[in-house]
């Protein structure tokens, strides 16, 4: 089943699926869990959000997820699983192909300097969409339906209870 809805920014449209819609993703989004708690990062200008980012030249998409996790949280992954993919269109042009992952974090180290996040927060329960929508400290990227739907997909995953 595919979901289609507006994105977080004007003129964006998103198609979301548990299946791969496009073979080669160029971005990642991760729902990381450390000791059963969801790891969120505070982007210096957008606010609280899930770790993620763009794949670099010569990097596999899994390597991108591992690197982004370290750069944004100081975390090292123990396990990672793809749970879905979404496409972001701006007007009619496909801009981003993001694989969505759930991961188990082995260790959280000190947040590295020089990247775009400035804090890490561990939350006991996955925040509900209504909580995020009404809280201006959350990134606009957490306020679209990607988070709402994907958080339902992972709510009973084994990584959420470790």
From TrEMBL:
Record SUPFAM superfamilies: Nudix (SSF55811)
InterPro entries: Nudix_hydrolase (IPR020476), NUDIX_hydrolase-like_dom_sf (IPR015797), NUDIX_hydrolase_CS (IPR020084), NUDIX_hydrolase_dom (IPR000086)
Keyword Hydrolase: yes
PROSITE patterns linked: NUDIX, NUDIX_BOX
Cofactor(s) required for function per UniProt: Mg(2+)
Alphabetically ordered keywords of this record: Hydrolase
Pfam name, any one: NUDIX
Gene3D superfamilies the record matches: Nucleoside Triphosphate Pyrophosphohydrolase
Domain named Nudix hydrolase: residues: 20-144
Family per record: Belongs to the Nudix hydrolase family.
Protein name: NUDIX domain-containing protein
Organism in which the protein naturally occurs: Paenibacillus radicis (ex Xue et al. 2023)
Lineage: Bacteria, Bacillati, Bacillota, Bacilli, Bacillales
